[in-house]
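Dear U.,

Please find below the material for section 3 of the report. The protein was modelled together with adenosine-5'-triphosphate; I have listed the sequence and SMILES used, followed by the predicted complex structure.
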Amino acid sequence: MDPDPGTQAAEHTRRTAGVTFAARLTFDGIHHSYHGKETIKGVSLTAEPGEVLCLLGPSGSGKTTLLRIAAGIEAQSHGRVMLNGRELAGPGVFLPPERRGIGLMFQDFALFPHMTIIDNVRFGLTAMPQKDAIAEAMGALERVGLAHYAQKFPHVLSGGEQQRVALARALAPRPEVLLMDEPFSGLDSRLKDTIRADTLAILRETRATAIVVTHDAEEAMRMADRIALLRDGTLVQAGTSDDLYRRPCNLFAAAFFSEINEFDGVVRNGLVETPVGEASAQGIGEGTPVSVAVRLSGVGVAEKSGSIPARIISRRFLGVVELLSLAVPGTEKLVRARVRADHLRPGIRDVTLKINRQDILVFEKT
Ligand SMILES: Nc1ncnc2c1ncn2[C@@H]1O[C@H](COP(=O)(O)OP(=O)(O)OP(=O)(O)O)[C@@H](O)[C@H]1O
């Protein structure tokens, strides 16, 4: 069942998007403070032409502030913002938002309730003759499959449709770069997947470079060509979702992308001992204190075939999977595992564990 009839309409009537010039947006050594509190601490990062770059991080990590700096709503204290090598903001230069060629779609994509949909979409096209602005706005509405709503007012549209109108409004001036701050956060989870996929398809067609803020690692993995992970105003790691998931640079990055069990240990002979077995600590010096992350999905649980004895302390049924807490010898800490729901028989207490090597990550303690 499709809860949003507008989405179905979009599949049939959406026009291929007009192409924008793909642009490269660069943050170069950006620092920023609010009232003396440093919020961005030297971030350098580039969104390549035509790519979808997700800024990912917990609340307060500085994602929105970076977007606002790119848009020209906020000024950095040091560093430069460049578009195709041209300085938008830097020492002695500050282009106002309307001269940056950057489109914005912020969290509360609020449409103006007293304006028709077409007037909402042509809001940013004031520099054009009215006839051209209407034609451009209609084109943008066709792109998102909602041209038939042009003369309606926002309140008759569903949340998902309003979101698509907001996207049309942001794309109408054909920005070289589109900045989106948590664009799907107001949508219910059933709609979110469809709208996100539609939005991504439209971004690909327009070839606009897009920077999308999210705090949801899965959303970033679904959308991004590259992800930049932020924490406390610093860039932790940037790369593809594969890089960040498989080769996280530290425990924080590992824990952001998967649920983990965490153990402390010390490197001895290139190995580190944990309650769930030995892990390789190649490249880390003898005697170094380390943190070992074991992904929940990497903890195999079997009645007899594993090598580590364990006792099930709790089981939580989550539908497709089951979350287990297990006691193992040598630690007070419970080990958590995520297994297929019908995998273990009801009532079983004593089991064995087998850890998948790929799901063990070892990091030097910082
Ligand atoms: N207008 C403001 N005045 C003072 N401090 C602010 C202001 N806006 C943001 N901050 C602070 O700047 C830091 C970064 O905030 P920012 O909104 O950029 O983070 P974020 O990663 O986008 O968080 P969220 O996901 O919650 O939106 C936070 O510590 C926040 O409290």
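For the text of the report, you could mention the following: The chain has two domains: 5-246, 258-364.

Regards,
Y.
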